Amino acid sequence: MMHGFPTTPIGMGAGRLLACKKCDTYITSSRYMLSCAYRGLLGKAALYREVSSTTTRLAPPTIQLMASGAYTVRTLTCQTCNSYLGMEIVRAYESSERWKEGRTLLELESIAEQRDAPSVPVPKEFLPPSLDSSVAAQMGKADIVVQERETGRKKPRRVMFRRTMIILEDMRARIPEKRMVLRTRVSKGTIKTD
């Protein structure tokens, strides 16, 4: 078990969803973590191979001297609340550190397990061409109930969606076969279905 991280949600299959500690915007998944043996500006940090490009913002590159050498880095902030999250390593000047290029160093002080189920924007390329822009702009929350087929145990989940309700269909696809969605209820926002 990794020190400093909460437990993995059951049935997500994508690792723990990590979010901005201040506003709970999705940043990355724990499955993308390469190492947590780093120090950042705020303390302990972890190196990730992937972060969300739609929920984060990168500053212009700067050169920074660190314990393992000089790097060209870009400061990473939350797109929603503009909180400092860490930095993306653009270039490593030491040949032994080049493997870190393109990786992101996230401050553990700035991220936490996401409080609600995925709040990830659906990329436009995954939207069907029939959807108009008014449907694509919708946002909200939906509650789903998942039942394990083997044990019969029911688990409620809250799903955040942006742009369209297709996020729920995607959520159904990511739930393992041993589970099934029993019902869906929208608690905030609107859903249009064809």
UniProtKB/TrEMBL annotation:
**Alphabetical keyword list:** Metal-binding, Zinc
Q: Which domain of life is it from?
A: Eukaryota
Q: Does the keyword Zinc apply?
A: yes
Metal-binding as UniProt keyword: yes
Which residues are in the Yippee domain?
16-115
Q: Which residues form a coiled coil?
A: none
Gene Ontology MF terms in the entry = metal ion binding
Which InterPro entries does this entry report, sorted A to Z?
Answer: Yippee, Yippee/Mis18/Cereblon, Yippee_fam
Pfam (any one): Yippee-Mis18
The text of the family note is: Belongs to the yippee family.
Give the protein's recorded name.
Answer: Yippee domain-containing protein
Q: Which organism was this protein described from?
A: Heterobasidion irregulare (strain TC 32-1)
